[in-house]
Amino acid sequence: MKNVAFDEFVKSQQAPAQPEIDWNKRRDEWLINLDKLYSLIRGFLKEYIDSDQMQFKVQPIELYEENIGSYTAKQLALKIGRRKVLFQPAGTCLSGGAKGRVDVVGPSGANARLLLVDSNAKRTTDVLRVFLEPQGKKPISNKKEPAEELAWKIATRPPERRFIEITQETFFEMIMEVANG
Asked: Is residue 113 part of a domain?
């Protein structure tokens, strides 16, 4: 005996066919953007690194992401006097529309978050994709077409998460906040 209601429920849960994601390409693009972030940071800190007031050390770490598997990424360690600030890559398979995340962790556990998002994004609602599916109609999305350019941005803390452009000034402010806990 067939349960019609359950059969309809199962059919309604089947996701519409979506384009296949090239996970190797996604991983490679994420790693390239991670290198670009570290180059940007090195540029901001050049005078401090050159004068030995700060150490800038990039080291390999192993990441695992469900759709990608295990791979090697780079973690950045900044040593400022006795304080150490780590830039720990979290990955590229994230919810919320970001294409990458790096957690910035200070010596006392204070942290900040860097997100790789659409270069035009100002807040979470600019990168989240929400689909509304009115009865019997085509799904409606609130997301604009993505920009071709991604940018690293500092994510503010909830409840209203905003994205702040990374400039030398905003970067220095973030480092002081994280390092001082």
From this structure: yes
pTM summary value? 0.78
Q: How many CB atoms within 10 Å of residue 150?
A: 20
Question: Is residue 2 in some structural domain?
Answer: no
Task: Give the mean pLDDT of the chain.
Answer: 85
pLDDT tens by residue, 18-65: 668 889 999 999 999 999 999 999 999 999 999 999 999 999 999 999
CA separation for the pair 128, 115 (Å, rounded): 13
Number of domains in the chain: 1
11 in a structural domain: no
117 contacts: CB under 8 Å, gap ≥ 6: 97, 98, 99, 126, 127, 150, 151, 153, 163
90 three-class SS: strand
Distance CA 51, CA 171 (A): 19
The range of the structural domain enclosing residue 161 comes to: 21-180
Q: 11: alpha, beta or left, given left = phi > 0 and alpha = psi -120 to 50?
A: alpha
Coil, strand or helix at 47: helix
